[in-house]
Amino acid sequence: MNPLYLEEALALAEKAVGRCSPNPAVGAVIVNNGEIVGRGYHVWSAVKHAEILALEEAGEKARGGTLYITLEPCSHQGRTPPCADAVIAAGIARVVTAMEDPNPLVGGRGIRRLRDAGITVDLAPEYSGKAVALNEAFVHFMRTKRPLVTVKSAVTLDGKIAAPEDNGGWITSERARAHVQTLRHRADAILTGIGTVLSDDCLLTDRSDVERSRPLLRIVLDSQLRIPVTSKMVQSAACDLLVVTTSAAPPARRKALEEKGVEVVTLDGRDGRTDPRLVTDLLAERRYLSLMVEAGSKVNWAFFESGVADKIYFYYAPKILGGLHSLPVVGGAGRKRRKDAIRFRNVKIHPLPPEEFAVEAWLDKDFS
Fold this sequence. Notes:
By secondary structure, the chain is an alpha/beta fold. Helix content is 29%, strand content 23%.
């Protein structure tokens, strides 16, 4: 196995991120006699899977060659016929894959079908980490049947997200905010609370200028439907804005929003608020694989306390606000004892030169 070819396949898969949901990002390379004869990566709009595109480019040169692919070829009928059958028909002699497909409809069946046809199949576990990272939302959804929920925030070194009075300007730099757009591009949906909408009149759009498989679904938690019809979010609604409310909301406000093309859904939880689990249940039903939370202290706490949040991505600026009235990144009731603190694992530090950094980490749900 030549690792350079699998690296090439991973680079191709990277091009598909954000452009293939709810399918996984997959890259494929076909090699024959030491020469790359076919390449492909899957995007939703193109319908065809990565290996099919690579086979089409290779043509007869695929016969007797090796297919390097980031994810096991599928073995079931979906929008397209099983890719494993196409690989067999093309005369591929060997397949090298970075990981098995976590989809229970596949889950090793594609590999078995290839081997039963006499094709040598090798797993490359040293590349599985990279392959999983490219498709962390897909893998999470297939294993849990729930969207991957990431809480993102821009914070000062002392963990504050807002000052008690004038909140003009930004906590982090333009460079950090540009990086946030790469996260939004990877997400299927983004959520905030009504407090953030009222204070910032935000848009919460994907401004990466990169093709998406479907619009970024913008979600607002608004128990009383206070979101103004004149807000930027409502004015820009184009079948991409969902306002989640409660049965206590005035019907007239609901009607006004729906007339503007906003979808309004009632999801009653405890204490007159929506349970975050009901939101993620709804997203799972609609096959949204990932949700990014960009909200205030109360909403952040609701997602942590409910156990719905899966990871964080906090951007830190070299600033301190201090005081007892500046808002912390997580508010709410909080934990009363140190030993009950919400814990994290797989912590990664991402430098954002010259002076900022981001912390990415997964909640350790065995302890939290």
